Here is the input.
Amino acid sequence: MNIDSELDLWRRQWQSETAVPLDLRRKVKRQSRFMKIVLLADILVTIGIGGGAIAWAVRSPQPDILLLAVVTWLFISAAWAFSFTVNRGAWSAAALDTAAFLDVSIRRCRGRLAAVRFGAGLFLCEIAFCLGWIHHHAPHHRTPLLPWLLFSSLFIDIVWLCTLAFFAFLFWYRRKKRAELAWLLGLQGQSEPRA
Amino acid sequence: MGTDAAFLDVGSSKLLDRVTLERQFDGLLAAHGPALTRLAASYTNTRSDRDDLLQEIALAIWQALPRFRGDCSERTFLFRIAHNRAIAYLARFRSQPPTVEEMEVRDPALDPESGLAREQTAERLRTAVHRLPVAWRQVVTLTLEGLGYGEIAEVLGISQSNVGARLTRARQILRESLEDPK
Here is the structure.
């Protein structure tokens, strides 16, 4: 078979499948709305927690409450600063082609892996500070710290369960991202260097 | 009053932009929907995965459309977005080549008498394309959609000579695969 007629035949066979799913446009609009809601939720969480801490400090301006507000904003600032640093140059591809997209995907993947480490560290700092602060302010704060931390109340149980769930999630996410990165690097290796 | 009029002007111009954008989006999907569907199918194993990927592609097109300035052809613009979304999708799910049972992404033949054999050969081609390594699959799917070397190079960000080299090798593998399907 002639080489071009072979390609023509394949083209005809390939293009014989034409089914387009129905309601695609409606789904796109729904997904687009959902993404805006998620972005809004992120901003609201920051404002809610940070704003709540400030409001409490303004209403009861005692040193402990002020300390809580300051540390809360330190944590929030650290998270945003890290996010801006890690996402620098990863917001969009340098060009529109697939090679550039692959570059930016690899950068994003490395950023997510760094975020896992940073998130774990930040979470531990937050838990240590918050539990210390709550223990200091609990009515029975003369109870020694260690027994208090080890299943002394439903609240503490919930904190440890959430911590466990959070670290299990981080572990799973890290494995997923590492596999994704290995796949992307392999794919990049198949491509030639950009001219 | 003047401010209100200016506000209304801005509002109606935004509305007009959106209507134009929606018309453009609908037009693109109508013209290239089948090609994008085939492309999505070549990266996925099941119909529902294909529809999910197609939805992601359509969303990415919807988001990128306001920035489209006509510095490349519509087709190049669409296929760039589609291939990039497909790469991101594969990176997330690292879809494996399908088994014969999994290859359910196809149209039922309209005419069972004459359509069955044709559908089977088309099915074999789709399976063979699906089994190619991603870098070659991209070049093959774009070629089968009728893009030239220049356009493919532009979509993928590689040189035309690389497009040619990948296509030659991919065609050889496809030929072998079609002659001896396993």
Remarks:
- Confidence is low (pLDDT under 50) at residues 98-110 of chain B.
- The first helix of chain B runs from residue 2 to 43.
- Helices of chain B lie at 2-43, 47-64, 74-93, 112-130, 134-144, 149-156, 160-179.
- Chain B has two domains: 1-96, 132-182.
